[in-house]
Amino acid sequence: MTTRSTSQSWALDIALALGGFNALHPQAKGTMEQLGHDHTDFDKVFDLVQSGAMLPKAWATIAARAEQRAAHHERNDFARTAVDLYIRAAVMWGRAQYSIFDATDPRKLALRERANHCVERLSELRGGLVRRVTLDFDDKQIFALLHLPEGPLRQAPAVILGPGMDMIKEDYLYAAERYYTSRGMVALSIEGPGQGESRANGVTVDLANYERAVGRYLDYLTELPGVDPQRIGMFGISMSGYWGSRAAATDPRLAALAAFEAPTGDFHTLFERAQPSFKNNYMYMAGYDNEAAFDRELAARMPLGDLVGDITCPVLYGIGEFDELTPLEQALANYELVNAPKEIRVYEGEFHPLGGVAAEVFRFGAEWLERALSGEFATPGRDVRHYVHHDGRTTDGTADPQWWSGAVPFAIDRLRTVTADKKRNPSIPSHNC
């Protein structure tokens, strides 16, 4: 536990008691629905919650109800209804185990087994179109779920679905089918180092092993019959937008990246100003119990800096104007350092969950990847920018908020000047943001 989380836990409890989940993550319900949660389940859970300590029990209680109903429909041969309910149960069992930051805690393991059982049932009911994947990695194992379209595969594109810091592979059960396999694409929802079952089996995250894990998943997909090895992309939410950026910069087999809410700034905001649970969770993922050592050995070395300049595939970034984990000026400065064909969308008034535009973001990210993997956005020098207004309008050609009135923070202006100069004179060296 961090010093801040210990001293400020009372504040989080008050926020939960008075404002529910929305007090911690504004409009996040929209995002949670894209991750397979039914909004009625969500409301039932938070009707039971008055403090953070109550979350695992509340999630488990409502998960058990959904699983029981799923089993009823399965017994009566209503397979699709059962599948929908097993998805709802699986993601809630996943939420229940999330708040227990001890990989050996029997309760965490038991809740994980309940999620696994639900996935097993829905997999069988869907004829094996959802399959568990276990890969060797650094003398241990990492885990994923393979989502297949119906019918034979013939040179199909594939997408790695990367979970955020507090997500698991099951969180893509709904989105994988809705946005990818229904379009004839293969999807692989992963758990990298520090996440879910991978963490439970001893694989902690360090500075560079997540992108190596993405490489291991790329190995798997390139060898999968029916997949086009030249058309494999990645969709990343939050920390997987960060890890996806690192992977795209280090593994040329990744043919496109769509990253939303990616922490691309200095990480001081994420670990020292945002809710203490973020740092708690990441220390658990990395296997640290000494906060000073974590700050010195990992956190201080995490910012992307010039690394994004090594990306060669088309990239899409999307971020809320008031993202709590990455100040917008830092996100825009990071974007200036990308030399690959690129696109960015800034969503007015949105916070880190992008909950108010979640349905749009998930569909747009999938469609953008489908087109990118067909070679549509590979034009050198491509640079597309949009500021998406809350009222439905979109300003094209810039992602800067209009209320800036044309004034640009110095760090961004400097990088834009350097970028323009480099286009005229490629010998000019790059600069850190």
Helix percent band: 40-55%
Task: Note the main sheet.
Answer: 10 strands, mixed
Quaternary: single chain
Low-confidence stretches: none
> Whole-number radius of gyration?
21 Å
The total of helices stands at: 16
Report mean pLDDT, rounded to a whole number. 92
* Shape call: globular
Tell me what portion of residues adopts beta-strand conformation. Answer: 15-25%
Main β-sheet, spatial strand arrangement: 1-2-4-3-5-6-7-8-9-10
Structural class: alpha/beta
What's the count of strands? 10
SSE order in H/E notation?
A: HHHHHHEEEHEHHEHEHHHEHEHEEH
What is the CA–CA distance across the termini?
31 Å
What does this structure look like?
With 433 residues, the protein is α/β, with parallel strands linked by helices. The protein contains 16 helices and 10 strands. It has a 10-stranded mixed beta sheet, with helices on both faces. Helix 14 (328-336) links the parallel strand 7 and strand 8 (342-347). Helix 3 crosses helix 4, helix 4 (55-75) packs antiparallel against helix 5 (79-98) and helix 14 (328-336) packs parallel to helix 16 (410-424). It is globular, with a radius of gyration of 21 Å. The two termini are 31 Å apart. 47% of the residues are buried. The model has no long low-confidence stretch (mean pLDDT 92).
